[in-house]
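Design job #97: recover the sequence.
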């Protein structure tokens, strides 16, 4: 697979569930996140090029974990090395200014 990332990705230090805001269901767990995309680890295969409105909490070493909402679109998916898991790449297609600022701040943290 060719490397197509435009921004460095950061792995969370904690388990982060990504929730579909329309259905209220968990889509999967965050594998990594950048300013323009994410890797999702899920038991279900997403629809090709599907668009989702999701929320996720950005893990920090502080007591509070800010939650952001983003619109994402599926770009690719493939079976993971672990049976029953699917890795999916998503592009962020919509994010509000406040959520974008929270995301950028989180990405800059060590």
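Job complete. Output follows.
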């Amino acid at each position: 697979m060719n490397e197509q990332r435009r921004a460095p990705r950061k792995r969370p230090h904690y388990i982060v569930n990504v929730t579909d805001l329309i259905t209220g269901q968990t889509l999967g767990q965050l594998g990594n996140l950048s300013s323009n995309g994410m890797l999702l680890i899920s038991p279900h295969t997403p629809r090709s090029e599907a668009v989702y409105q999701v929320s996720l909490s950005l893990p920090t070493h502080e007591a509070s974990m800010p939650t952001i909402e983003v619109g994402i679109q599926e770009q690719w998916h493939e079976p993971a090395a672990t049976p029953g898991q699917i890795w999916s790449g998503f592009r962020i297609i919509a994010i509000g200014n406040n959520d974008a600022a929270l995301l950028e701040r989180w990405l800059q943290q060590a």
